Amino acid sequence: RKEVEQDPGPFNVPEGATVAFNCTYSNSASQSFFWYRQDCRKEPKLLMSVYSSGNEDGRFTAQLNRASQYISLLIRDSKLSDSATYLCVVTLDSSYKLIFGSGTRLLVRP
Amino acid sequence: DAGVIQSPRHEVTEMGQEVTLRCKLISGHNSLFWYRQTMMRGLELLIYFNNNVPIDDSGMPEDRFSAKMPNASFSTLKIQPSEPRDSAVYFCASSLRSGRRDGYTFGSGTRLTVV
Fold this sequence. Notes:
heterodimer; A: 110 residues; mainly beta; 6-stranded mixed β-sheet; 5-stranded antiparallel β-sheet; 0% helix; globular; B: 115 residues; 7-stranded mixed β-sheet; 4-stranded antiparallel β-sheet
């Protein structure tokens, strides 16, 4: 079983739609959680950290459910520029070794 | 801040040749990570250093791969001899170890093609 699992997509949605991505992780000792965004032929970039209480950054909302070992990302009012691959990332203990999911591809169409 | 700087951006080499990838960390960062990304396997951690010391090299595929961090701001990843299956995008990333919420900053990557 992969340590971090994501639906690869692609998710093809119209502009303005709300879209949600889910991610599960296998190690209950995971300590920190992130969503990264990667554009085609570019490096991954931190989108947002995921806090236990849930957190919001503009149109983006991240949720963490430790009991179910589940992380989500919600994008509201999607824009064409949101088209990218979204990577779910966890770290174990204090080593800061990032473990990446394989990513979910989002395509936002006009 | 110039960010994490990798060179070269692209490398095409023949099978059997030695390849050296370079990475300059962000000033003040003390953790350095080398990742490899392919379509089939996604992003895989190859090795990471903390304060110039290799902490985990379990992801290094085989003895043909070696990584060094000769000083606090610079690292190299060497493949000798290179093989076509080494073709991938190689990213390095750096971070500050302190601060539980810190993510990493990635370099732009080196796209390696071994023919």
